[in-house]
Amino acid sequence: MVNFMTEYVGEKKAWSIVYGIFGVIAAILFFLCFAGCKERIHENEEEKTEKIRVIDGVKAVLKNKYWHMLMVISICINIFFQAISAVNTYYSKAVLHNSSMISVLNTAYIVPAIVTFFFVHLVVKKYGKGKTTMFGWIIICVSYVILLPFTENTTVLIITAAMRGIGYCFLLAVSSAMVSDAVEYGEWKTKIRVEGLTFSMQGFVGTIAAGIVTAVIGWVLNFSKYDGTLSFADTQAGSAVLAIKLLFIAVPFVVGVLNIILLRFYKLDKMYPQIIEDLNKRNGK
Fold this sequence. Notes:
Layout: H1 2-9, H2 11-36, H3 54-62, H4 65-84, H5 86-94, H6 100-117, H7 120-127, H8 129-147, H9 154-190, H10 195-223, H11 238-263, H12 268-282
Helix pairs in contact: 1-2, 4-9, 4-10, 4-11, 5-11, 6-9, 7-8, 8-9, 8-11, 9-10, 9-12, 10-11
């Protein structure tokens, strides 16, 4: 679509128009999702719990070690997402000199990710959410190890992009459910249940992290003397090419390794049945 629009309005405007079209489509789909959702759980008056002060709720969330762990994982997922989306464009331009590879690589990871969504629940059921997330990062890290000797080989790039799509699906499939488990742990630990605040704080931190990651990418490109006015056929400065390769391969690989190490300390899946049993007893259920 970008190539088609470029013939009429130029490359810069073409990208803006295409992103605008996708934005409108996304907005319509989100609205339809909102309009089609119905509240199925209605809380009875006698079941309502006492109101909790915001400051007490925030303190309870900050005492939840699994919330902290999941925030780190969420930030790392944001970093990885930028590597396979925004940096992908710069990689196709500065390293591959091929604009068509942008859509090819995007498709290579999106399609396997969608297909994997239909089967990932089997992995979750057998191994739990923590190990499923770890498996996702392992697949992603292995893809980068395979890619490292063949950074400009399009076939290897497509195969490893598909691997990253599968790994990314593993991460997304359980991320929200893991926060829900952290809510139960928080109530069990602090005797204060703050599911709304827990999720909203996660969303706030994730949004801030996404903005910071995007800004850092811009700063790195600027520092490395990347020239956005050059075309796909032109050669960027060697420092810019190196910086883009680091952002595309090295940074997400390091992030993945750190997450694999972090997830070795994730014990909530094993604790969860006992936590629910204790909470049911405590709440008289």
